[in-house]
Hints:
Distance between the termini of chain A: 61 Å
CATH topology of chain B: Rossmann fold
CATH architecture of the largest domain in chain A: 3-Layer(aba) Sandwich
Radius of gyration of chain B: 22 Å
Number of helices of chain B: 6
Number of domains of chain B: 1
Number of helices of chain A: 9
CATH architecture of chain B: 3-Layer(aba) Sandwich
Low-confidence stretches of chain A: none
Strand order of the largest sheet of chain A: 5-9-4-1-2-3-10
Order of helices and strands of chain B: EEEEEHEHEHEHEEEEEHEEEH
Number of domains of chain A: 2
Shape of chain A: globular
Distance between the termini of chain B: 55 Å
Number of strands of chain B: 16
Helix content of chain A: 25-40%
CATH class of chain B: Alpha Beta
Largest interface: A-B, 89 and 78 residues
Oligomer: heterodimer
Strand order of the largest sheet of chain B: 9-13-8-1-6-7-14
CATH class of the largest domain in chain A: Alpha Beta
Strand content of chain A: 25-35%
Number of strands of chain A: 16
Largest sheet of chain B: 7 strands, parallel
CATH superfamily of the largest domain in chain A: HUPs
Amino acid sequence: MNGTARIIAVIPLAWGDEALLETTGAAQQISVDAGCGFDVVLLGGAAQPSEQQRAILAAAGRIQLVAHDMLESGDNLPALATAAARALTAPTEQQLLLVPPGADGEELAALLAAQLDCALLGRCTRAAWDGEAWLIERAVWGGRQTLSLRLTGQRGVASLRLGRAQRGTAEPATLDVLHIQESLPEPLEIEQTRSEQRLAPVQGARLVVSGGRGVNEQGFAQLEELAARLDAALGGSLPAVDAGMVPVARQVGISGHFVSAEVYLAVGISGTPQHLAGISNATCILAVNKDPAADIFKVANVGVVAEWEQLLPALLAQLPG
Amino acid sequence: MNILVLLAGVADNRYPLHEIRLDNGLISESGNSRRVLSPFDEGALELALKLRDQRQDCHVEVLVLGGSNQDNLLRSVAAFKPDRLRCLQLQPCRLWDAALSSEQITAVLSGESLRPDLLLIGREFGDLDEGGLPVMLAARLGLPLFSLTQYVQWQDGKLSLLRERGTCQQWHRPTGPLVASVTNDRRNKLRHPLMKNVMMAKKMSFGSLDAPADNAVSLHPEQLQPAREVQRGGNCRMLEGDVQTQAAALLSYLKRESQA
């Protein structure tokens, strides 16, 4: 047991149970390996966390709710970072601050690091305490190399995806509430309209139909039709987004969205580590590729060696609209 | 309007990675690096050029990160004829440390009195940044950030920026200086330069801006190694038969889930 390391999970309540489960899961796992405890700072409005949410936090040493009306919606990231920074006192140990994984979490991490004037550890693949300092690993050069970094400052902010927290049976710690009285940054003025997207977003979808570099515009039209008939979400790899086949909001992978669907149909996707990093290990991957040596078949559960030009029409013909 | 574009470049992923190693706390790269503009860099540059195309009072200044293959990278950008182009030398260059790098860039912009109305930067700044640098740079500059910008346009004489979130489009019309991080989109694919400009760029020389930092290090690199193979082990079951048989078997998996 080492007394100089500490983990604090910083979680906006409005981001939902998934963010709570993922961030607490990472905190739990790292704290067990490091032999230190972890605390939780929740960011929200007047409403307190539900009993179900409190159960997720059962392993936390201390739970604090930082409350302000402007934190209620969870979409004003500068306000969330400012409020969190006000709640975090000067560290006496080397602190690892964990935020929810995903694009918004990574932006929150950077804003929080700027507020606290500390290191941004970023999107990590591993974090461990070596008895003296936090060591983290990050994927660099497009996932082709791994860089190990040692935190030499007092604090660092990171996001990790290590699986969901186990719901505890122990009585959760008492909830301390800190009401922020000061004003927080105003949100950007945004005008929001519906886009032409008729399908659900990939985040949270149970079934994702996805295409890669090997699929052209006609193929993506067929994938979209297939997704519509199956009530699935449409996704794409980075090369498909670069080629303009699918909007970036539907990109799956290390620089896109993380999906934890039950089934992921990958058509014309080679299976790079960068793309696979966006798919949960628990997801069943169905792969279609004309190249029998494609890397995707090394990780898929079910594979079909076929040209999409033949297979997609056959799928649609057997699945009437 | 003054537009500043910050470009970092990435290793060309069409080729095997050049030799890279850690050397005394810094990254050392071999001379055969093929650093090119990333899709995010290209998007940032194209949006700046689009805005200039539509209004003559737009001044586009570009800073390209120094380092391996910098001359080729600078020439490739010069072919698009920005109004000013210089090389940004981070000294030291520790791009894994967004806090340090953003501080260096903020200091150099301030020292040069560069106060752009719009600062465009790719959503990731090079091969070692995961998106933290643009956010921290905006925070250090004290400017609002519109992240993951896909498109910009002039609307009634005012700047209008677009991004998509889920099934929504979000438009922002800034009332003051702004940092916009740019993501790839079919609407911001970089145009091809004119051949005469490519030839002119080959003869150009470029000035540089030095961005020093003190020696305070909060993130020390310990090890750089090839990425481990993905550990998933799907034990792939290959579906045999003709395409109709394969489609039927595949559909049974998909339908089971869609009806669950």
